[in-house]
Model the fold of this input.
Amino acid sequence: MARIELREIAHARSGDKGDAANIGLIALKPEYYPALIAQVTVERVTEHFQELCKGKVERFELPNLHALNFVLHAALDGGGTVSLRTDAQGKTFSAALLRMQIDL
Amino acid sequence: MIRIANAQGFWGDSLEAPMEQLRGGPIDYLTLDYLAEVTMSILQKQYSRDPQAGYARDFPQMIERGAKEIVERGVKVVANAGGVNPETCAQAVGTSLKRAGFGGRLKIGVVTGDNILGRLADLVAQGVEFQNIDTGSPLSDVFERVRSANVYLGAFPIAEALSKGADIVVTGRCSDVALSLGPTIHEYGWKPDEWDKLAAGIVGGHVIECGAQATGGNCQVDWETMPDLAGVGYPILEAEPDGRFAVTKHPNTGGRVTMAGVKEQLVYEIGDPRSYMTPDGVADFTTIQMEQAGPDRVRFWGIQGRAATEFYKVSISYAAGYKAVGTMVYGWPDAHMKAKLADHVLRVRLDRLGLRFDAIHSEYVGVNACHGDLLSGQPSPDLAEVTLRVGVRGNDAAAVERFTRELAPLALNGPPVVTYPSGGKPKVEEVIAYWPALIPKRKVTATVTVREA
Done:
């Protein structure tokens, strides 16, 4: 068992829907998918994004793509046109999630 | 099989992509998506100043440039370039065709009925609540400040325009996937209740709607070795009558069509993957089957869908105060500490001036701007430079204006080793916020007209 960064076993793409950020997380190989399911939980993602996300986190499973999709509510300081942030549309949230440490 | 090429993922995307899609190989349809949410309110503002404006001016220019290929190759074009003024956009397209020497050769179809700004008060009086989908708040909270209101129409009006002989279809607001689903419905005669086929068309449309994001752009896997991103090919959807499809790109173009890149696009901004909602049906992304079917080709099958709901989504925009954002750049040594001191000085001055804002937000670009402090970790003390970026937001325009005068003085009266971008003080912008809502479909009528260009 080794402690690794999620980016070693997954890739991701993120964007916005209003004030919610949407992060799709995809296993680089099918055999990594169970680790995503077991460890990249709603609780861990909520804790991971505590500074940026003020609402609840939802997680959806896409076993056919070996992927998870996360919706982070109230995560964009009001959303694309309102937000004062550099990343008003959550485009770099994908890489932020890939910083998470997991055990493999 | 029909080939549908997308050449615009948003207004501001590559001006060359449409020409490359037209010239790079055989295609049947060219689609262009110009309308982000923010675009409609900008176009509405332009229209209120000039009744000949309010559409994507890039589109008639693109038609003039590409007219020869469009006419000679018989390519049909579908674009949501109409914004809040599709009729005038269509006239401008006609003028472009004449200027290019192809007047009277093509038919233009126009889809209207999405723009409900003028009917909003009536619709409210009829009992349509337009509750905010995200917050549940009633529209009366912002009604006086509404700037635009547009229904996301579906793909069937586009199919109707094509069946009436249109060579170029101009729409206002419609779902992004409608631009490619409309041609597929037209070509194969798909019915409004063939949910699995429609779901397949929805998924295919979603893959190509963001342009080169399906062909290697923005792809995290092997980006270091991505071939010729400078000449990246835009996506082509090859749709079959039974709903199966493939995504590819023209030969001899840059980028890659791989499982990794296409999967990234599939999960982009989709919400609940079992219920990807569009006006024409609900696609279940968990039923997607896909495989690499050759170089730069990914094949899809097995997609299932469900019935569309009785509602259209409405995108309403409203005025929500003012904001301004400015930057100062601090150089080595101790760049981050200097930038933090500058931020402190600035905030004390704003406070002493008695200025009040709904929000003041400070970031240190190079340290924490994208991911925040917790995830970014400790910055190196030897950073070559750090950009202080400060923004304020509030309803008091005068206070926001006054803020814009407080950054530049820091160049002389704040911490040392500082420079700032040319261009003067930050601009005060009006904030346009979004109000997503629903409207019963029976309250909306899409109108399709087709005429000679």
Q: What stands out?
A: The longest helix of chain B spans residues 335-352. Chain B has a mean pLDDT of 96. The longest strand of chain B covers residues 311-331.
